[in-house]
Amino acid sequence: MEQFKKILVGVDLDHQGFESTISQAAGIAACAGAEVEVAYVCPDYVSNAFLEAYLDQSVLEQAASSYQERLNELCQKVMPANVPWRIELGRRKGHNAYQYLTSRAKEENFDLIIIGEHDRHGFDHIWLGSNAEKVVRYAPCTVMVIKHKT
After folding, report:
1. In angstroms, rounded to a whole number, what is the distance separating the alpha carbons of residues 80 and 93?
2. How far apart are CA 42 and CA 109, in angstroms?
3. pTM reported for the whole predicted model
4. Which of 1, 3, 125, 134 is the most buried if burial means most Cβ atoms within 10 Å?
């Protein structure tokens, strides 16, 4: 059986179930003795060069800070004391969430990616695609997809 020592948890704060994804990752990390990085890819407006030119930088920093605080609060609540964890806020800068997560996994040598999957059907799925599906396809390591009930 493969030992997981570095777990990357990709979350989407805009959809229900991200708390469950983090909680399940915490349990796996505790059993495996692994470290966890919780990654959230910020919306385009936080890393959009056009908006950066017209908005006060403090507005964008405040948005990123609120994401950081939200994830910190949750991780402090669900992560066991024996699990080292950190939060990484990704900036899209032209990349999709799946590209960010798969690149991060490769660069930092993660053993496992855990992501949540929310149902998208019909035109939304065809038009937008599924980040979870693309992470599974392009990841350099094992991927666990947490299916959220809707």
Report:
1. 33
2. 22
3. 0.84
4. 134
Name the strands in the sheet holding 85-90, side by side, starting at the edge strand that comes first in the sequence.
Answer: 85-90, 35-41, 6-11, 112-117, 142-147
Query: Residue with structure tokens 């908006």?
Result: 51
Scan for tokens 């399940």, then name that residue.
24
Mean pLDDT of 21-47: 87
**CB atoms < 10 A from the CB of 123, how many?**
8
CB 117 within 8 A of CB 11: no
A 10 A CB-CB count for 114 gives 26
Instruction: Give the integer Cα–Cα distance in Å for 89 and 21.
Output: 17
In the DSSP assignment, the letter for residue 44 is: G
Number of helices and strands in the chain (H, E): 6, 5
